[in-house]
Amino acid sequence: MLPLESIRKAARLIGDRIIRTPLVFSPSLSRKFDVAVYLKLENLQKTGSFKIRGATHKLLACRDQIGPEGVVAASAGNHAQGVALAAQLAGVPATIVMPEWASITKQEATRAYGGQVVIRGKTLEACLEHARELAAEGRTFIHPFNDLEVMAGQGTLGLEIFEDLQAPDLILVPVGGGGLIAGITAVAAAIRPQTRIIGVQAAACPSALEARRQGRVVRVDAAPSIADGINVKEVGELTFAIMREGLDEVVLVAEEQIAAAILMLLETKKTLAEGAGAVPLAALLSGAIRPPKDSRVVLVISGGNLDSPLLGRIIAQGLIKHGRVMRVGVRLDDVPGALAHLLATISRLKANVLHIRHDRNARDLPIFVTRVVLELETRGPAHVAAIAEGLKQAGCELEPLDGGRSAG
Predict the structure, then answer these.
(1) What pLDDT is recorded for position 407?
(2) What is the DSSP string of 247-265?
(3) Residue range 129-136: mean pLDDT, rounded
(4) Which of 135, 195, 372, 404 has its CA 20 to 30 A from that of 145?
(5) One of 51, 75, 106, 406 is an active-site residue; which one?
(6) Residue 82's domain spans which residues?
(7) How many CB atoms are located within 10 Å of the residue 218 CB?
(8) Is the same domain home to 210 and 102?
């Protein structure tokens, strides 16, 4: 259905319009998982995502059929930006239908790439319906995944992997609608069938997993996910046909694991991945995938378009959950020198004060008692335990706090 030659032709057609993204060996991740880990850094692609590959190929492949109204697409983020920039580079107008909840950051990025943004509806299904209505008026519709020319464009990423690493044993790929993994699966089947291709989905939206279980495309309920780029309730008929033949497995990862993977990539590799781009690493972190020792594993980091406010929350919560930040409440006698004694003790215990709140007017406190709430930077869980014990030995009365890692 998707021959290798069509993907190679796509690579030749779009080669001067995209970035050949690096495949980077990670010594630290390799040591951690006892395998050779390589990162395909598609977050460094134009628009910050692999989506421009498929959009560019579709647009160039049907360039002669595109009328003066240009192209139209429906998307909440990466596909929107990919189509907008691909159209701009080809010199044709692009209309992008986005849902009401699409982030302002992604709306503005789409406009900056030359797309005319139309906000319509509360769901992607409503956006797709309106995009098809606009297509009936003379625009060329570019589907985000259920299109052979789009899949061929996404498959060029797979070609690059096999050109840079001749014999990968395992490739972990994010799965939403299935366009990316279908393209990579087609390449692997033709070049090295023994390479295992495993799809990774957020547990919040297991559409590909359910399709494989039932042997047909099914629509699933979806919960909100930080991996919004793959939060697709139904895979495509065309993509599923390819996945059913060549895909080895689909695994699920939880939100906490995705957040941990984002933080790990940021800290250890200085790489910003969005939620969808981090799910391959989340599959290793969670143990959903346990590759054989010394195997060569490629993680497809499919994109890096993560909104700054969400990134801030992920970092803050991740540091707390992993014992890198400690929140602790302390009751003190409201006398001169008590706070100085507390801070001197914390200094001796080698913790760094990030935030401090001193409250002597809380309703639940005795008249001569004050409460201090501290947020401390620590080296990890062992350091948290040592700080708690040190404060108790110094005569401090600790209180449990709601949420986060506390020492109560």
Answers:
(1) 52
(2) --EEEEE-HHHHHHHHHHH
(3) 94
(4) 195
(5) 51
(6) 53-141
(7) 18
(8) no
CATH number at residue 104: 3.40.50.1100
Annotated active-site residue in 49, 75, 207, 302 = 302
Model pTM score: 0.88
Please report whether residue 298 resides in a domain: yes
Is position 51 annotated as part of the catalytic site? yes
In a domain, 408, yes or no: no
In sequence order, the β-bridge partners of residue 330 are: 372, 398
Which of helix, strand or coil describes residue 404? coil
User: Do 170 and 190 have their domain in common?
Assistant: yes
Catalytic: 75?
A: no
Asked if residue 406 is part of any domain, the answer here is no
If you average pLDDT over every residue of the chain, what do you get?
93
Distance CA 331, CA 397 (A): 5
Which CATH number does the domain housing residue 385 bear? 3.30.70.260
**Contact 331/71 with Cβ under 8 angstroms?**
no
Residues 94 and 202 both lie in one domain: no
d(CA 158, CA 139): 30
Report the distance separating Cα 110 and Cα 152, nearest Å. 23
pLDDT digits (tens, 9 = 90+) for 241-290: 999 989 999 999 999 999 999 999 999 999 999 999 999 999 999 999 99
Q: Strand 352-359's sheet: what is its strand order?
A: 352-359, 369-377, 325-333, 397-399
- Residue 254 · residue 286 · CB < 8 Å: yes
273, 298, 317 - which closes a domain: 317
Same domain, 306 and 183: yes
| Closest listed residue to residue 58, CA positions, set 14, 116, 115, 12 | 14
Q: To which H or E segment does residue 377 belong? A: strand 369-377
Amino acid making up residue 162: F
